[in-house]
Design goal:
The complex is a heterodimer.
Chain A lengths: L2 E4 L2 E4 L4 E6 L6 H12 L10 E6 L2 H6 L14 H4 L9 H13 L10 E7 L5 E6 L5 H14 L4 E5 L16 E8 L8 H22 L7 E12 L11 E3 L16 E5 L4 E3 L7 E3 L13 E11 L1 E4 L1
Chain B lengths: L2 H12 L17 E4 L4 E6 L6 H17 L9 E6 L2 H5 L15 H4 L9 H13 L10 E7 L5 E6 L5 H13 L5 E5 L16 E8 L8 H22 L7 E12 L12 E3 L16 E5 L4 E3 L7 E3 L13 E11 L1 E4 L2 H16 L1
Parallel strand pairs in B: 1-14, 2-3, 2-4, 4-7, 5-6, 6-8
Antiparallel strand pairs in B: 5-7, 8-13, 9-10, 10-11, 12-13
The chains are: A alpha/beta, B alpha/beta.
Chain lengths: 315, 361
Amino acid sequence: MSSSSCNNSACLNEARRVAIFGGTHGNEMSGVTLVNLWVKNSAEIQRKGVETKPFITNPKAVEKCTRYVDTDLNRAFTPENLSAPGGDNLPYEVQRAQEINRIFGPKESPDAYDVIFDLHNTTSNMGCTLILESSKDHFNLQMMHYIKKAIAPASCLVLLNEHPLLKYSTSRSVAKHPVGLEVGPQPQGVLRSNIFEAMRVILKHALDFIELFNEGMEFPPCTVEAFRVLERIDYPRDANGNIIAMVHPNLQDCDWEPLNPGDPMFQTFDGKTIRYHGSGTVYPTFINEAAYYEKQQAFVTTRREALVASAIRKI
Amino acid sequence: MKAWERVEEGKRQGRGKRKGRDRVDWMEVDEVVCLPRLPRVAVCGGTHGNELSGVYLVRELLKAEKKVMEKEEEEPLSVLMVLSNPRAMQQCRRYVDTDLNRCFTHAKLNGPIPDNAPYEIIRSRELNATLGPKGNPEAVDLVCDLHNTTANMGLCFIAYSDCDWICLHIFRHLQRQMPDVPMRYIHFDVSNKESYSLDSVGKHGFAMEIGPQPHGVVRSNIYTAMKVGVQHMLDWVRIFNSGTIFEGGCVDVFTMIKHIDYPRDNETRNITAAIHPKVQDRDFCLLHPEDPLFQTFSGETLRYKGNEPLYPFFINECAYYEKGIALSLARKRRVTIPAIRVQTEQQQRANEQEFASEEEE
């Protein structure tokens, strides 16, 4: 990625090649449906000066309407996986990761796609969430700022996952500017009209931003409120690893609301309350996401942070 | 009609073999129908392995059972706790090879099975041996099969009969004990011969379906409603067995009339529209002809083309996409239920004699 400072703006290359990924998890239906729609008829996603490619990343999982076949594709883009020999003997999603890296990468090379939007749904009550992988990606920060303004008064929150241990190798990480789009609540395997339309609107504004940027518009410095991932909290389990409590009714559906020390957090199956005993107030999200039971996660905690984005314009 | 003949009617009604519609005229409001005791009840969870309220509840009840074994009752109620589909539960999937809850027709339970039979066919026969056999006097008296749905249905009883007084009385009992939980009784008008679900194995049976809950998730409010519902059901059975008279009354019953599928692409069979936002989450809100029903991906509204207003339910149930069902539609009617009580021992003996001589015929 080439950038330089000219007149206090970060000067960045035009974003010429953009991809929209759907079906990274085969049962997250908004992305699957939108991408299938756009593969058939791409008029809605076309913008002047941009090549926008809609792409189903995990077709086998989509066909079976399951999250993944062998392993989670959205954790598979590790350097080890991307360079692993073995061809057909590799797990399906590792093969897919290598193929995606060939088409849209290689990851961390100058040839990689400029922007990848990766479309996801969650069973959590997160509303519209944009997921950022780096607090120093000024292009993405400006895009997210633009989107938030464009959809106001409707809200779209920014989740920053820069945590050295909790960060993971996503399909979108192949691009120079990876953008995760997570909309919920929606059960796996279900298509809800309101969720579908919300995701569509966000993408429309995101593509508008890219078009404006490529045309030479300068975006002044701005501040973006984000929620930075702190830690993952698992369900209470017994000695055999079985879950022994559920997300407490007071916490269920309260993504992004403050959780204070002493607040109810879990409820055992026989009705006892287990409270949060952290040192300060946190903002939980991904509360009761179906796919995370097996990943030992009931929710993640975050803290609020104001991220500063430099002015940007194209070179 | 002589009192003896009324007991006969009550016996037959108790097995739910005849329709309720022609009963109302002759039934006197203060006539008490006597029905056989219910000594054995089965509570089943995990019939669909990713419907987690039932999975976790039955697991907890199995744990608690070990502690409560010593508790003495005058006439202890035998409660069997069953995890119906362990392999599907382990993988947190609805089923492994085929939907277990469609494997309980007489045809599927009997006859030869091939060596490579689907897992669920083998399992349905095991369950039939434990809880049935279906249609046999050895079958458990009541099966309560626990389910979750992604549809906004609240708590529903789903049964094959609209004149099984046991199920209807249990439903009414739960309605009174849990007034804050939206509750409906759904009737699938399917004959005993064609009945296909696990709850049809017992002499009486119903599915307890609670939503909305995503599959693979347990929501505490949904779990608690199910736990409390099961508890009240078991309490009712104990109270019934002890001789209490339950007064008659009325229950609104929703009888399934038809299903409507999503509009689909002719070639790919992929859906081309979603449930309209005006219908989404509005289970049991009357749908009138010409009301919006679907919204295509290009924004067009498709309308309900039926000729009578009907009550929608199972709106946008995840598992029904593959069954070609976007929603189901029902007619509502008020069913009068008689007062009931358990048969005395004398009535029970006469009942058994009568049954034996029926069989001889």
